[in-house]
Write a structure and sequence with these properties.
mainly alpha; 2 domains; 5 helices; binds heme C; Cytochrome C5; Cyt_c-like_dom; metal-binding; electron transport
């Protein structure tokens, strides 16, 4: 009887040990964080941080390409670059910024950004490039 009890508790012990081991094994090793994404900067409370302003989003994400014209991106502050784009209408630019357009990646790689945040950044670039 005693031996049986020991055996049973032994099993229970090794089972919970096994569960712990599995939990450790399946725990995320790290978080993928694209450059420019806010996850690296504020992992603690992203929800309470509120939506990013167009200016902030431009500075943290869009400027990577739109600051210097990477891949042919229209440069911020350059009316010649932005004039023909703006002529398409803001709605078209919003759609292209959110869904992607040629080398322009969807949401400018900021998958975590809301559509409204992206629109704010588009407006900021268009307004700042007249
Ligand atoms: C990886 C580089 C890259 C990043 C980051 C990026 N863009 Fe772009 N974007 C481009 C390129 C390249 C084009 C030009 C595409 C073309 O006209 O073929 C472009 C074009 C645009 C256009 C014009 C689309 C049109 O219809 O003419 C808008 C608007 C735009 N980007 C918004 C944004 C916003 C907003 C962000 C930040 C949230 C952003 N982009 C981040 C590369 C980038």
């Amino acid at each position: 009887m005693v031996a049986g009890l020991v055996a049973v508790s032994g099993v229970a012990y090794s089972e919970s040990k096994a569960v712990d081991t599995v939990k450790e094994r399946i725990a995320p090793v790290g978080k993928v964080c694209m450059s420019g994404e806010p996850c690296a900067a504020a992992p603690a409370a992203p929800a309470s941080a509120g939506p990013k302003s167009g200016k902030d989003l431009y500075g943290s994400v869009c400027a990577t390409c739109h600051g210097t014209g990477v891949l042919g991106a229209p440069k911020f502050g350059n009316a010649g670059d932005w004039g023909p784009r703006a002529a398409k209408g803001l709605d078209t630019l919003y759609t292209h910024a959110i869904g992607g357009f040629n080398s322009m990646p969807p949401k400018g790689t900021c998958a975590a950004c809301s559509d409204d945040e992206i629109k704010g950044a588009v407006k900021y670039m268009v307004d700042g490039s007249k």
